[in-house]
Amino acid sequence: MISSLNADLHCHSVISDGTLTPEALAERAKAHGVELWALTDHDEVGGQQRAAAAASAQGMQYLSGVEISVTFIDQTVHIVGLGFDPDNQALQQGLRRTRGGRGQRALEMSADLEKVGIHGAYEGALKFVGNHELISRTHFARFLVESGVCRETNEVFRKYLTEGKPGYVEHRWASLKDAVRWIVEAGGVAVIAHPARYKFTATEEFALFSEFKGHGGQAVEVVTGSHTPAEYISYATMATEFGLAASRGSDFHSPLESHTDLGTLPPLPGHLTPVWELLVSRIQRLQ
Ligand code: AMP
Ligand code: MN
Ligand code: MN
Ligand code: MN
Fold this sequence. Notes:
The chain is of the alpha/beta class. It is built from ten helices and eight strands.
């Protein structure tokens, strides 16, 4: 398999905080030339069967996917899992536990927004939620746009819902060790998602990469919708330094909100090992 394969191994459906169904995403991925696809909803594998079936109907190869929320040195880090068994019980239980605090957190976010005069945010956000176990900041962001508080979701995250801003509620997610273990023990590969997004010092980032690797993590996103071209290069270097394979994914959420569409990113730098080479036996091929 070649590294220029059009693989898109990171996106979201209505089962987490995307706005398209797994079927509509598969159709869109195919229309943009994707050959190998993974749906990676946050903390949830409930869309995997539909996504795999839709990929097959569209003539694309498929890898199972998930994006697990982790707390590492007091920051939220996302770990993508690829090619695992979606029926694995320990993984499902871990994800259920990780999702568990979202309802209470959403109520607290709403109470905090109330203090700055934004009323009914919980009920407002719920209108955008496709899966009641998965209420997220994105759903609040859509409500704040709909109600005219902000013009677009990016503006919401600049002014609200992030550390130090109204509507931000500190939350503890899964540990790095647990998230990597759930993925690896379910037969998959763990991937550090969009590393440039985190606000770690160089020492903390080194700790993230080395602990991740120590727990059995094997890959890092290099080419993602969250990185600039300069960041593709710096994380290609990190991949080489840490002996990690490289992944590629748009992180597509919505036609109206996402700047990077499915399948439109540049290929991975040629000298890196593409993560799908570690997953050859896990790819669901066409019949
Ligand atoms: P949560 O898991 O509830 O904390 O929500 C995290 C989600 O919010 C991410 O997966 C993104 O979809 C979205 N998000 C976070 N920061 C931003 C941002 N600056 N702009 C747009 N969306 C964001
Ligand atoms: Mn998201
Ligand atoms: Mn993420
Ligand atoms: Mn994502």
